[in-house]
Design brief:
By secondary structure, the protein is of the alpha+beta class. The protein contains 6 helices and 14 strands.
Length: 226
């Protein structure tokens, strides 16, 4: 008997939207009722948990509040209006390169519970309007901070201006905002130049399927009953 409902762990490539992944899976499965548990920006890669069929999509909220793990690359010295590589440059730092010792100290200060203000370029809604829609019109509104928790930040690699971090954090954490805040505390500015979601709770991207490995003939082999 063919399985018609379950979860697909999808390794999202860059330059395709999370909604684009859904459209692709609808095409190959011929099932309309498909959704995902947590958007990744178009430039970001990594784990997207996709619910296929009515029973699975009903359960997607279970994953939204789970802790996440990311590998993030910060470009130090350049600030953008979106806090990431897709925005307009606001500031280009011309001072001395930051050394690893001061970076370690600043990064360590971000571990723990804290309030984080959502970026204007985000899908968060205020009064029914998505923030990025307002931001594109040049409108900035007051945003209430959200309580988040950074469990761990590990420096994986550093060579000015690129700083690669592994971050374990609570749901609702904006890694773009974290990148911008780290750059601000370093006094040089920064933006997020690359992002990969490596885990959602206990589920790892290592078990996820890549786009070129799943098709109309084999998609049910990747359907999980969690």
């Amino acid at each position: 008997m063919k399985k018609e409902s379950g979860f697909i762990f999808f390794d999202k490539p860059a330059e395709i939207t999370s909604h684009g992944v859904i459209a692709f899976l609808r095409h190959i499965t011929m099932i309309k009722k498909i959704g995902h548990a947590g958007t990744l920006d178009p430039f970001a890669t990594g784990l997207l948990i996709v619910g296929v069929g009515r029973e699975a999509t009903k359960r997607l909220d279970e994953f939204l509040k789970k802790d996440k793990e990311y590998e993030a690359t910060l470009h130090l010295g350049v600030s953008t209006d979106t806090y990431d590589c897709e925005g307009k440059i606001l500031n280009d730092y011309v001072g001395d390169k930051k050394n690893l010792k001061e970076i370690k100290k600043v990064v360590a200060d971000f571990v723990g519970e804290q309030d984080q203000i959502p970026p204007m370029f985000s899908a968060k809604k205020i009064n029914g309007k998505k923030l990025y829609e307002l931001a594109r019109k040049g409108i900035e509104v007051e945003r209430k901070p959200s309580r988040i928790k950074i469990y761990k930040i590990k420096i994986l690699k550093y060579s000015w201006p690129n700083l690669k971090l592994r971050i374990k954090c609570s749901s609702g954490t904006y890694i773009r905002s974290l990148a911008s805040d780290i750059g601000g505390n370093l006094g040089c500015g920064a933006h997020l130049s690359a992002l990969r979601r490596t885990a959602i709770s206990k589920f790892s991207v290592k078990k996820a399927v890549k786009k070129d490995k799943i098709n109309q003939e084999n998609w049910q082999n990747f359907l999980r009953l969690l």
